[in-house]
Amino acid sequence: MLVGSTQTNMQPYLTGLRGFTLVALGQLVSLVGSGMSQFALTIWAFEKTGLATSLALMGFFYMVPLILISPLAGAWVDRGNRKLMMMLSDLGAAGGTLVVFLLYLSGNLEIWHLYVVGTLNGLTSAFQWPAYSAAISTMVHKRDYARANGLLSLAESASGIGAPILAGILLGLVGLRGILLLDLLTFTAAFTTLMLVHVPQPKPSAAGRESRGSLLGEALYGFRFIFARPSLLGLQTVFLLGNLVANLGSAIMAAMILARTASSETALATVQSAAGVGGVLGGVLLSTWGGPRRKVHGVLMGWVLSSFFGSVLLGLGQSVWVWATCAFIFALIVPILNGSNQAIWQAKVPPDVQGKVFAARRMIAWVAGPLAMLVAGPLADRVLTPAMMPDGALAGVFGGLVGVGPGAGMAFLLVISGLLGMVVGLGGYLFRVVREAEDLIPDHDHTPEVRPEPVAS
After folding, report:
1. How many CB atoms lie within 10 A of CB 443?
2. Among 12, 45, 351, 372, which residue is least crowded by beta carbons within 10 Å?
3. What's this model's pTM, rounded to 2 decimal places?
4. 252-273 pLDDT tens trace
5. Distance separating alpha carbons of residues 191 and 210, to the nearest angstrom
6. Is 178 exposed, middle or buried (0-12, 13-18, 19+ CB in 10 A)?
7. Where are the domains of the chain?
8. What is the SS3 assignment for 441?
9. CB under 8 Å to 251, separation ≥6 — which residues?
């Protein structure tokens, strides 16, 4: 009997876009649980400290390890089985929730524990994102890249609708302990759906052969690949600068809403749920439409519009319904922005090096984020909040725009970050390597495949 003659019967049930749709559904269930935990822990942390800095540091300790380990994680993803990497990253995230659950159950949970667990979650996410992103390129046809990215975005956004509402209701019924337990149960959905699909390993390419070497050398290859292609480097610079200024605002947005509504769980849940609805519609739109024909317009105009609605107008607003409307429009745009960018990269980068390259691009895009988070909290708490009180130094100048009192300083910071984000998006059009990126770099499937080297017997 030939070796592998029963392979077809041994493979899991689904592949292609249908299989990836099942994976996205599993992620949806898991993300609802994670979203409920994040919402409940945000309320818990703010009530415990009353500081925007505490919430910003939760993001900081998540992002730093994610960024530092990403290049090595990307190399491991390309070396190993991508499906296994996806499963292990989900198990790692479940482990972080289990630690928080046990600490809370024993009455020992402190703010600094959330920072430690955030570090653990950042490490697991470093493997998760390149593995899931690279899996799209081998599971679905190139024409469906944007649609598959839309499905993932849809799962993230749909969880954003239900998670805050469910968390707000369940906090009064089962408390933080019950929510954390539900989160642990929802991880089984992500794990089970991965068991039921087939994730093909990528075919070898010239770039894949070139990248082979030590683990460190393979990790650095992702950077060499990007820096050798000015258009990809230009796109990533847009995200580097955009994320830098966006994190100044996003790090303190929840604290602003809580500060301006006397820590109202309902107000925060309303805004986050509105964002979830917008994200769902954006994901549906992207998965059915496929995004603009010129994907770079989805990227650059996406930055302009998302910064305007998600930071400038949101900071200027002073009511829950204005915030909710802005959050809805912002979240509607983000899937198109990210999905358009992702489709460009998935078309240009050979699948067998996407783990390394995507990890490197994430590091470039996010490296300034922790700095922004470290700055945002103290800047809001110690400088802008006092300055925007009724007798503060800036109240007379900017009070007519964002109001005065609790939360006004944070709102002012949101407006500043949004204006800077709009400049980043429009600035991308000034550079040919960015605005014509799709034309200047050939798609990876235009390059002949490289046959595997024969194995010596």
Report:
1. 14
2. 12
3. 0.67
4. 888 889 888 887 878 888 888 8
5. 34
6. middle
7. 14-194+204-443
8. coil
9. 52, 55, 56, 59, 372, 373, 376, 377
